[in-house]
Amino acid sequence: MVIRNKLLIIGLLASFGVACTTTSEQQPEDTGQQDATTDTRDTAQDQSAIESNPFDDPANPLSKRVVYFAFDSYSIRPEDRDIIIAHAEYLSANSGEKVVLEGHTDERGTREYNIALGERRAIAVKQLMTLQGVSSSQIDVVSFGEERPIAIGHDESAWSQNRRVEILYPSH
The domain 60-168: what is its CATH number? Predict the structure, then answer.
């Protein structure tokens, strides 16, 4: 009985050693080069991710989520209408989606005036979206006035970046 157990243990240990050797022999050698099929699959996966998420595709207007305004104005510029319309079409087609329109201003003017101006800017974007068929219940408007500048500075270069409405999707 003891001999039989010893033989069984020796047999198990031997098979374990063979199994370990076989496993390590089957692994490919690292040559420092990537497999071409892996590269192709990665590229295809990256492309399908862009196609499935239009917000990440720089060629898609949905990837643009900031609308800029002239000084002391809440009129939508002609070059920004296509961005707003693209988002409106997306929201119309996806009635379960919601969007938050954040209105911002530059630092000039009183705090109260800038909060009101930021709100008028966001409402202007909302109005264009609702004219395109978006339900107003899908759109929330908030104004931060001058409180959240994106560019720090006291010149037109900074101010022009801060006069904006950001189109934000809580689900993305």
Answer: 3.30.1330.60
